[in-house]
Structure formats: C-alpha cells, structure tokens
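Section 5: illustrative case.
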C-alpha cells in the first residue's frame, strides 16, 4: 500500500532534477556578470571632460601652450599683446603725469615756484605791508572767479622766447591785506645759456598809491657783485 502511494505521488510530483535548476543559476550569473561588465565598459569609454575653447576673453593662462590649437594660440597671443599695450600705456601716462607735475610744481622755473617766491618777497617788504595793512598776513590769490567759494583761482602767466633766444616769464596776481587790495606784476627773463632767472621787475600796484617796485632792472643799473643766486633765482642786494 505504501509502495503504491509513493508511486502515485512520484507520478504527480516528479523529483527535481539538477539540470532544471542549474541552468537558472547559470543564466543569473551570466546576466549579473554581463551587467557588471557592461557597466565597467560604459564608464571606461566615457569621453574625457572637454575643456572650453580658449578665446581672448576667457584665457587665464592655465592651459599649457603646447596643448593649444593654432586658433587658441592666436587668441592667447592677441590677449597678451593687448595686455602689454595696456601696461605700456599706463607707464607712459604715469611718466607724463610725473613730468607735468615736476614742471608745474617742483621745477625751479615752474609757475608755482615763481609765484611762491614773489609772495614771500611781498610779505616781507615793509612798504607793501604799510600799503595793504599789516594787521594780519597778506593773502595772495589768482584771478577773481564767479564762484566766491572757489579756493583754487587761476593765476595768469605767460612764457615766451624772443628773437634773441631769451626766455621771458610774466605773471600777475592779486594780493590783499587788512585794509586794501593790490595787483602784483612780475617779469623774469633768462638769456641763452643761463640757468638762473633774473628779475626785470616785480611791482605792486595799490589803488591811490604809487607803484611799489621790489625789483626793477630798467631803473637800477646792474653793478658787478651786486647780486646773488638763491633757490634758482638771481636776487640783487
């Protein structure tokens, strides 16, 4: 009886065969292995990160010259040439500004230096102090302007060279004391081969009073050993 039941059960449920399960395992392994290999192959064949093309606008110099294409080399050369031009222009402008500043402010024959020297002479002259008033320091300034708050007033001056090669410097400006105002007229000259400026005249005009000459070479004959050089100007004793 038992043998019959076992035979019947065997007919209904045939025993598992190794060949029915192993192929499934092999297919799984093949599928898994194929997937893993395909993933590695995809990563290995990805294109390298491509860099942007070098242009005049975006070149920062990090890419070596040998790695540049012909077009990129032209772009880098153009950019460096432009940068060099900008630097050279800046140097030229800086040098020009320095030269202008020296000629206008620090040079011995500059307008600023001659103005300051004349003002010092005027402030130390007793006749000018009496004419303008000496209650406080005499103030010197340039041409009057429409803006009464303007601090930097232009000073009228002129430089020219005559037919004999003599350089002339002329200037006039205003002075003010405690009681009156006046106008200063200045004329200096420098002959060919001379390095020092000489006064032709330095005069102060005050309304209602005679002109005050601090220097007047036309009225006073020049004498030997009667002058000396100081601060780039020739002064007479």
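Designed sequence:
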């Amino acid at each position: 009886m038992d043998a019959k039941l076992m035979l019947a059960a065997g007919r209904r449920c045939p025993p598992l065969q190794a060949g029915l399960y192993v192929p499934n395992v092999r297919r799984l392994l093949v599928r898994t292995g194929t997937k893993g290999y395909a993933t590695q192959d995809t990563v290995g064949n990805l294109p390298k990160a491509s860099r942007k093309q070098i242009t005049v606008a975006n070149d920062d110099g990090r890419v070596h010259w040998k790695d540049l294409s012909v077009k990129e080399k032209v772009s880098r050369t153009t950019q460096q040439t432009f940068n060099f031009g900008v630097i050279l222009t800046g140097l030229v402008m800086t040098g020009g500004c320095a030269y202008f500043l020296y000629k206008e402010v620090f040079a011995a024959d500059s307008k600023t230096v001659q103005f300051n020297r004349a003002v010092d002479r005027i402030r130390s002259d007793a006749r000018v102090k009496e004419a303008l008033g000496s209650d406080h320091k005499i103030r010197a300034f340039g041409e009057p302007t429409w803006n009464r708050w303007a601090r930097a007033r232009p000073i009228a001056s002129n430089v020219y060279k005559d037919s004999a090669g003599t350089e002339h410097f002329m200037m006039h400006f205003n002075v003010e004391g405690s009681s009156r105002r006046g106008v200063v007229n200045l004329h200096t000259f420098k002959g060919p081969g001379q390095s020092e400026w000489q006064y032709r005249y330095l005069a102060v005009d005050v309304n209602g009073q005679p002109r005050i000459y601090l220097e007047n070479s036309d009225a006073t004959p020049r004498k030997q050993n009667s002058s000396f050089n100081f601060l780039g100007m020739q002064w007479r004793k």
